[in-house]
Amino acid sequence: MPLHPKVEAVLRAQPIGEWAFLGPQGGRIKENYALLCLKADQSKIGVPECGLHGFRRFFATNMLRAGVDVETVRQWGGWKSLETMLRYLADVVVKDSVRAMDEAVRRLAAS
Q1: pLDDT at residue 1 is higher than 70
Q2: Percent of the chain having pLDDT more than 90?
Q3: 14 lies in the same domain as 39
Q4: How confident is the model at residue 75 (pLDDT cuts 50, 70, 90)?
Q5: Which residues contact residue 52 at a Cβ distance below 8 angstroms, ignoring those fewer than 6 apart?
Q6: How many CB atoms lie within 10 A of CB 60?
Q7: The pLDDT of residue 93
Q8: Do residues 40 and 75 share a domain?
Q9: Nearest-CA neighbor of 63 among 80, 51, 75?
Q10: Comparing 36-50, 56-70, 88-102, which segment has the lowest mean pLDDT?
Q11: 89 and 103 share one domain
Q12: What pLDDT was estimated at residue 94?
């Protein structure tokens, strides 16, 4: 996944440990705190608010489109089952499936 050079620099500067970033009390960042920070930052820069799941979906969609197998994407995304992941990505998978079918038909017609 390509990263902006400034983001990459920040991530590389983090000490290697159990968590890349620590919450305000140390330890793991809780979802509520991350969402609060995300909404505050979105408000500051004038970006429409979206939840944390949008990033998870963006990541999974891009990994699938890049050819990473579904089971690996499921594991990376933390979904407990393939069925749950596919329900979560259903409309994306359908759109990609339609595009793939259109491409297959185009190739067949050209041969």
Answers
A1: no
A2: 5
A3: yes
A4: very high
A5: 31, 34, 35, 38
A6: 22
A7: 60
A8: no
A9: 75
A10: 88-102
A11: yes
A12: 64
> Which pTM value belongs to this model?
0.51
Co-location of 60 and 111 in the same domain: yes
43, burial (CB in 10 Å: exposed 0-12, middle 13-18, buried 19+): exposed
What is the separation of C-alpha 66 from the centre of its chain, rounded to a whole number of angstroms? 13
Sequence-distant (≥ 6) Cβ neighbours of residue 85 within 8 angstroms: 60, 70, 73, 74, 77, 79
Q: Are residues 94 and 80 in the same domain?
A: yes
Please report where in the chains the tokens 């979105």 appear, as a residue: 42
What is the C-alpha to C-alpha distance for residues 29 and 51, in angstroms, rounded to an integer? 16
Give the structural domain span for 81.
52-111
Q: For residues 73 and 3, what is the distance between their CA atoms, to the nearest angstrom?
A: 19
Query: Based on the domain organization, do 56 and 107 belong to the same domain?
Result: yes
Contact 82, 71 (CB under 8 A): yes
Number of domains in the chain: 2
